[in-house]
Amino acid sequence: MKFKLTFILLILIPFVGIRSQQPIIVSEDSLKIGKSLLPGLSVTIPEANYDKALKAWTKDLQAGTKSDVITENEEMTIFGAKLKGISPNPLNVYSRIVKLDSMLKLYVALEIKKDEYIEKASRNSEYIKVEDYIREFSKNQYLDVAKDQMDQEGDKLRDLQKELSSLENDKSKMLKSIQSDEGTILNEKDNITIQNNELSSVDATLREQKSLLAGMEEGPAQKEKSEQVKDLEKRKKKALNSVESSENKINKLNNAIDKTNSQIPQNEAMQEKVREQIIVQEGIYQKYADKLKRIKNY
């Protein structure tokens, strides 16, 4: 029961910091430019970065015209803006972007003629177009935010998946290493058996040849027998060295196997931990993916 509760908390705790999508609110409003209070609209831009939104808004206003946005005391003005979605005629656009706690707020006033502005009461159809225009702008900024959030969580998920894959590969290599070492140990044991048989045969022959040599008189036959004894002693030494080498190799391989076997439980524990993190991260990623879908449907 304690394990289940811990696992549930592990899943839920990371979601506490996830911001759900916020509404985009377009309102009739006013904008203070200098000492004048101009009639217009405002729109909230949830979670957006001020500099990015400012750059995007400036780009939108300057699109299709040679006029530049003039900024003074964070008040933006552009004369002769061509906003085809709102009016076929050039417009003077006054605007300001303000930072709030968890969002930005864009204030806009559009001047059709000298001191004549698009207002809800007087020009209803154009007012609706302005509403749609700034709502779409806000939505695009919010989509960028949500996509960045989703991409960041996707990167974290992929990193965890890569980490798990790396751990799985490490375990596979360790198991293959153990299997290879065990195969080598069998080969070395076979070699020891062969060399011990060789030693038994050489020892018996060596005793016999030494006995014959001891009873021979000095001469060519004795010299030849002496060479045979020396060859047998070399074969014996070679067999002994081979046995010693195999035994040393077996000891080293057994130590390597013990060390690798001791590392496998740690690897498996790390795999389990990363799998749990992946489950959590998949949930976080899905939350942001769902958030992006909901914003697209605004």
List the helices and strands and how they pair.
Elements: H1 2-12, E1 26-33, E2 36-46, H2 50-62, E3 70-72, E4 75-81, E5 91-99, E6 103-113, E7 116-117, H3 124-214, H4 220-296
Antiparallel strand pairs: 1-2, 2-6, 3-4, 4-5, 5-6, 6-7
Mean pLDDT: 91
The structural domain count equals 2
Query: What would you call the structural class?
Result: alpha+beta
First-residue to last-residue Cα separation: 42 Å
CATH architecture of the largest domain: Orthogonal Bundle
The tally of beta strands, per DSSP, is 7
Biggest sheet architecture:
7 strands, antiparallel
- Which CATH class of the largest domain is shown? Mainly Alpha
Structural Rg: 42 Å
Helical amount among residues, as a percent range? Answer: 55-70%
Query: Given the structure, what is the number of helices?
Result: 4
Share of β-strand residues: 15-25%
- The sequence of SSEs as H and E is HEEHEEEEEHH
Describe this structure in words.
- The protein is of the alpha+beta class and 298 residues long.
- It folds into two domains: 16-145, Alpha-D-Glucose-1,6-Bisphosphate, Chain A, domain 4 (2-Layer Sandwich), CATH 3.30.530; 153-296, Helix Hairpins (Orthogonal Bundle).
- It contains four helices and seven strands; from the N terminus they run αββαβββββαα.
- The protein has helices at 2-12, 50-62, 124-214, 220-296; strands spanning 26-33, 36-46, 70-72, 75-81, 91-99, 103-113, 116-117.
- Strands 1, 2, 3, 4, 5, 6 and 7 form a seven-stranded antiparallel beta sheet that branches.
- Strand 5 (91-99) and strand 6 form a beta hairpin.
- Helix 3 runs antiparallel to helix 4.
- It starts with a helix and ends with a helix.
- Residues 1-10 have low confidence and may be disordered.
